[in-house]
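Structure ticket #2291
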Amino acid sequence: MQKCINYNQQDNHQPYKNQFKSVAMTLPFVEAIAKWDFGVGYELYNIDDDLEVMERFLEGEYYAVISDEQLIGFYCVGIDAKMDIEYQDHAKVIDFGCALNPIWIHRGLGQSLLNHAFNYLNHIYDFEIVRITVWSKNHRGIRFFLKYGFKVVSEQYVNYDGKRYKFYVMHYFRPKD
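Resolution: structure written out below.
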């Protein structure tokens, strides 16, 4: 049973990057994530206590990433990371999504979170490509993923709440051993 603390509260110290732990998503984590505010221009990523989304987090393959009892971020894999768009099918592709707790953005933890999640993927799944889908206006996310080694492979459009949004489908090619 996870200790119930305020997972949006920032501790006085930055978590240790090499002590991340993935745990199954639980209601206290989902409730904390549902209150995250990604800031002006990134509102599309805010959950705003949307019960349908929160339920999906609990039922799907979502993992909270914690360090020193602090919620660093989360990731999801497989069908839970896909959007309602047409994807080109590729052999050995795993769909992936992640988010860093907004209190830790620009603090050097994004790459550590991704490294941690990829370490998990490498031990559990047989894949050659990690596929993510990023909103075209998420400039900081796109820069981050490009720097990490992802490549934009296509553009897709999604209609949501009467608006049309452009997304980039990006691939990361797993290094050969």
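Closing remark: The two ends are 38 Å apart (CA to CA).
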